[in-house]
Structure formats: C-alpha cells, structure tokens
Specification:
This protein is mainly alpha-helical. It has helices at about 1-40, 60-65, 75-85, 100-110, 125-135, 140-150, 180-200, 205-220, 225-240, 245-255, 290-300, 325-340, and strands spanning about 50, 90-95, 115-120, 175, 310, 320-325.
Length: about 350
C-alpha cells in the first residue's frame, strides 16, 4: 500500500512539473513573438504616406499601418498601447525605411507628422508668396492669388475694406501638411499675423499702420533705420506731400500686370491708385507683408524733421541717408551716384 501511494505522488508531481514547464515555454514563446512583432524592423524602403484621421482608435490606426505595409501586425499597436500608453495623434506620416512597430508607435505619439517648410521673408508680396507656394507644391500661383483675394473675411474685423490679404500674411517659416490648400495656408498666415499684432499691441488704425509698415519694410533693410524711414513718411503725410516711394509704384504695376522687372521713368507717370508720385497720402492698402520690426516702426515712428532719404538698399555704404531739405537730399543723391561709380556701377 505504501509503495502505491508513493508512486501516485511521484506521478502527480511529475505531471505538475510538466504543466509548469509547458506554461513557461508558452509564455517564453508568446513573449518572443510579441518582442518580434514590436521590436523587429519592418516596412517600406520607398516613400509611403499614411494619414491618421482625427478620432481614430488604436485598433483602427494599427490596421491602417498594417494595410499600408508599415508594421507586420495591427496587434503590435494593441500591445504597445497597453505597455507604452500615450495619446496617438492625427496627421499625415511619412515612412521611407523599415522601422520597428515601437518606433512607429512612438512617432504617432509624438505627432511627428510630415510637413513641408516654406519660408516667407519680410516684405514679400502676395505675388512672391504665391510663387513660393507653387514651387513648394501647394497648388498653382494663381490658386494662391485667388485665395488671397477671396478670403478677406479673415481680416474683416481688422481691415473692413481690404481687397486682399496683402499685409496680413505674416512673414515666417511655416511647416505645412503636404495636402494643405491655399485657403488653409492663408488662414494659418493670418493667424500668425494676429498673434504678432497682439504681442505688439496693434489694436487700432490697423489698415493705416500695416500700409505704412509695408512701405517701411520695402524701403529699409536696416532694423535701426526703420523708425527713421517711418518718420519721413509721417512727416510728408503731415505736410500734404506725396510719398514718392518706388515700391508702391511697382506694386501698382504688378496689380495691373504691367511690371517689367525694372522701374522706368514712364512708370512714374503711369496713373495707378498706388502711384505715390501722382497721389498724395498712403496708397489704398499694404504693398507687401511687413514683419514685426516694421509694424512697430509704423506704430512708433522716430521723432524727426526728415522729409527725404536715400534708401540703404540703394546706397553702397550700406545705410540710408536722411535729410530735411530738398537741397540736402540732392547732395545726398549726388554723393550716392558718385559712390555707385566708384563701386563699379552705372
């Protein structure tokens, strides 16, 4: 009897040990399979774009990545959700090399979406911006110009009479989703303008300030001189003198499709609303998109008696020449022309 009980206990012990071993092996195999799904690189070797729409569940995103050939299995995303947590962010993602599911998951948590960077310099016009957007692949030049003309509702509270978004497309580097439309781009640039205006405290006379700032921007390349240039325009306006600024004339020619790339004497007598040789006061609206320093200069011009200047951009010495009288201005112009000849110009 004693021998039978002993053998029975040995069989039970052996069976329990076998079960434990089997369970251990299953766990190890499952863990290995999970690690393989999560950590082993997989995916495309050429450009592949995947768009995660707002509100997509983890399961939906995992399936989308699997169907797009980015990860081996959607279940990898489910495992990572349990392990890593984090909020998965909507947007378009670009994949161009094999990566582990863990790396893909981390990118979606970071919101590492694909964008194109487009830099808009200070003083760019809507024509300049339209050309840059076309070059970057965001529709045609004409598409952007049409949007800038039709979306004036975006600035209706700031400039009720605006004929386009000229002046309100703030210069900056924009990181734009690949499928951005001209309307979306214009809206983003106007939002950036509003943020800059709020920071500067620009809340009244917005149309006049932005128009003056656009002239300052196009006439001055030296930050310290912007308030001085603004003072010249303010002083001329106060005396009822025409502003006589070439960039405004050029802008009017561009609007009319008559700009030839160089300003000629005949252009100064061509009657457009932006010809500040023929018409006193500010032009009808901004002639470019000014940056923060030009906006601030227009808001706070220097206190001077200057009525004339030779712009820094035209001066080989690299700074503007300011004067109170026409005689002094003529001497500055003569000096400028002499400096140009010495520099090898005409």
């Amino acid at each position: 009897m004693a021998g039978r009980k002993s053998r029975s206990r040995k069989k039970k012990s052996s069976g329990a040990a076998g079960f434990v071993l089997m369970a251990f092996l299953v766990v190890v195999l499952a863990g290995g399979a999970a690690a393989w799904l999560v950590l082993e690189p997989f995916g495309p070797t050429s450009e592949t774009y995947v768009e995660v729409t707002p509100g997509s569940s983890t399961a939906r995103i995992g399936l989308l990545m699997q169907e797009s050939g980015i990860i081996r299995s959607r279940y990898a995303f489910q495992l990572l959700r349990l392990w890593k947590r984090g909020t998965l962010r909507a947007g378009e993602y670009r994949f161009d090399r094999p990566a582990s599911a863990a790396e893909v998951y981390a990118r979606v948590v970071r919101g590492d979406v694909f964008t194109k960077a487009v830099t808009i310099p200070e003083g760019a016009t809507i024509f300049d911006i339209a050309a840059r957007m076309e070059q970057a692949g965001f529709g045609t030049r004409q598409d952007f110009l049409a949007s800038a003309a039709s979306q004036t509702i975006l600035v209706a509270d700031l400039d009720p009479g605006a004929k386009s978004l000229e002046g309100y497309l703030f210069p900056d580097t924009y990181h734009l989703p690949r499928k951005s439309t001209p309307d979306q781009i214009c809206a983003a640039m106007v939002r950036r303008f509003r943020a800059a205006a709020a920071q500067l405290g620009l809340i009244k006379d917005v149309h006049a300030v932005v128009t003056l700032a656009s002239l300052v921007e196009r006439e001055s390349a030296v930050d310290a001189e912007r308030p001085l240039v603004a003072s010249v325009f303010e002083n001329r306006l106060a005396k009822g003198m025409p502003l006589m600024t070439d960039p405004a004339v050029i802008y009017g020619l561009e609007l009319a499709g008559r700009w030839r790339g160089t300003i000629y004497q005949s252009d100064l007598t061509r009657d457009t609303a932006y010809n500040t040789y023929l018409h006193k006061g500010l032009p009808p609206g901004p002639i470019a998109n000014p940056g923060a320093k030009s906006l601030l200069a227009a808001m706070e011009p220097a206190s001077t008696y200057y009525l004339y200047f030779v712009a820094a951009g035209a001066n080989p010495q690299g700074h503007s020449l300011f004067s109170r009288s026409l005689d002094e201005q003529n001497r500055n112009v003569a000096g400028y022309r002499q400096a140009v000849k010495k520099a090898g110009g005409r």
